[in-house]
Design goal:
482 residues, Four Helix Bundle (Hemerythrin (Met), subunit A), Helix Hairpins, Heat Shock Protein 90, 3 domains, two-stranded antiparallel ribbon, 10 helices
Length: 482
């Protein structure tokens, strides 16, 4: 019985998981030991060594201020001595909180000696302030003895902490060496297992995947013959059968789509064109004299026929674009004449609405590789929308210029604007933005979707910027021809 691809992968991953878990557990154990030793060195040993140095320095400084006071009798010297006394006692308390039992015994002895030293200094200060005669030499010898004893205790603490730090560093080194050796062994085993599992699994799937890849390329090129044969592993065999069924279905859909386009072209556009032409003949008086009311109705009928023909054409174009059946005739041309042609075509509607259209085209524009007719379709859609939503007396501006090595075109109107939440959705099928009331205009909501597909097929981008009440501005950029 052959294992399925899922079973093979599961077994392999389970093996790797067990090995990685073992490595991780061991690494966590060693890291905890490493962390404990490191924290002990940083937070206790190093801190105690720093405090020892500070205490020794402060003790020497106190002794100097105390001796200066004895010689000069200046109170400022004694005040400095008292300040250092407070600092010394505070640092001594910090050291006592961090120290182990041995260090605490030494710190207790230091505290007793320091207290005796302070009492001796206080006694001498009283004698000096009372201006009594006393033997300074005896006091100095006694004080120096306490100072020396305290310094000796501090040096002993320093030596003990340095020895403890050295021992912990040796322990850290041993921990690291041991962890490194074990990690190398387990990691090597994991890598070997991974390589072997990968080779075994790869051998069973590379050839079927290559066949699937080749078949996918054929489907992308429009060849839907069902001839894929894969027998193992079971999952890929089922996938191959699904591919074959998909190819059969795609072939049927392709035939249905071709029939649909043919039927749509004949069954919709032909009668609509006949209605349009018949309405035109009636308006021209071919069928006899018509009354004003009849002419008004015929005019409405002609306009609606044109709109329906436009809807059908837009639907056909969009369907072809989405199906990848729309052919492009790319050539290297200048966009300037196309823009001016689109502006000229819309001139009658502009005059009827009493608005102005301005062009701002940087000359000369760099050439671009594009399909002139399809790019005209984009320009007509953008200009038509701009004119449609611009109120009487408004203005539409068409601009084109090179920007960052690309060709940028914009169409700006002075209409009602588009809400920010609709700026991305307006390029979707059948979406016309969130226009309400007097600004609502009839349409299919396909023009911008078609424009986006065309621009994307040209390797460009299209987007809109707008603020309510401030008009809208549509941009698209195209790569320039090399």
């Amino acid at each position: 019985m052959r294992l399925s691809l899922f079973s093979r992968l599961t077994l392999g991953y389970l093996t790797i998981f067990v090995l990685v878990t073992a490595v991780s557990a061991y690494a966590i154990h060693q890291l905890r030991r490493f962390d404990t030793l490191t924290r002990s060195i940083l937070s206790i040993d190093n801190r105690l060594l720093d405090l020892q140095k500070v205490l020794a320095d402060k003790l020497d400084t106190q002794s100097r201020f105390e001796q200066n006071f004895v010689l000069t009798k200046k109170e400022a010297e004694f005040e400095q001595f008292l300040r250092l006394k407070e600092d010394f006692e505070a640092q001594l308390n910090q050291a006592n909180a961090l120290a182990d039992a041995a260090a605490q015994n030494l710190l207790s002895q230091i505290q007793r000696d320091y207290q005796s030293y302070q009492e001796l200094v206080a006694e001498e200060v009283q004698l000096i302030r009372a201006k009594k005669v006393y033997t300074q030499t005896e006091y100095k010898q006694a004080k120096d003895q306490f100072i020396d004893t305290i310094q000796a205790s501090l040096n002993e603490i320093k030596a003990n902490q340095q020895q403890a730090t050295y021992a912990k560093l040796n322990q850290l080194a041993q921990t690291v060496d041991q962890a490194l050796q074990v990690s190398i062994m387990i990691t090597s085993a994991c890598l070997l297992a991974i390589v072997l599992l990968s080779l075994l699994i790869t051998r069973s799937i590379t050839r079927p995947v290559a066949l699937l890849k080749s078949k996918t390329r054929e489907i992308a090129e429009g060849r839907f013959d069902a001839g894929l044969r894969i027998s193992s592993p079971p999952e890929l065999a089922e996938l191959a059968a699904a591919f074959n069924r998909m190819c059969e279905r795609l072939g049927e859909i392709e035939r249905m789509k071709a029939d649909f386009f043919s039927s749509m072209s004949h069954e919709l556009r032909t009668p609509l064109t006949s209605i349009k032409e018949g309405t035109g003949l009636l308006l021209d008086g071919v069928g006899g004299q018509t009354t004003d009311k009849q002419r008004k109705l015929l005019t409405i009928l002609a306009e609606e026929s044109n709109r329906l023909i436009g809807v059908v054409n837009s639907l056909l174009d969009l369907s072809k674009l989405e199906a990848g059946m729309l052919n492009y005739a790319f050539e290297t041309v200048n966009l300037d004449p196309l823009i001016r042609r689109a502006v000229a075509e819309i001139a009658p509607l502009v005059e009827a609405k009493q608005i102005t259209v301005e062009t701002a085209i940087d000359a000369p524009l760099p050439p671009a590789r594009l399909d002139p007719e399809r790019m005209l379709q984009v320009l007509r859609n953008l200009l038509g929308n701009a004119v449609k939503f611009t109120p009487k007396g408004g203005q539409v501006t068409v601009a084109a210029s090179p920007v960052d090595g690309k060709l940028q075109v914009s169409v700006q109107d002075s209409g009602p604007g588009i809400p920010a939440e609709s700026l991305a959705a307006i390029f979707e099928k059948f979406h016309q933005g969130n226009h309400k009331g007097a600004h609502t205009r009839p349409g299919t909501g396909l023009g911008l979707a078609i424009a986006k597909n065309i621009i994307t097929s040209h390797g460009g981008e299209i987007w809109a910027e707008s603020e309510l009440g401030q008009g809208s501005k549509f941009f698209f950029v195209l790569p320039c021809s090399a």
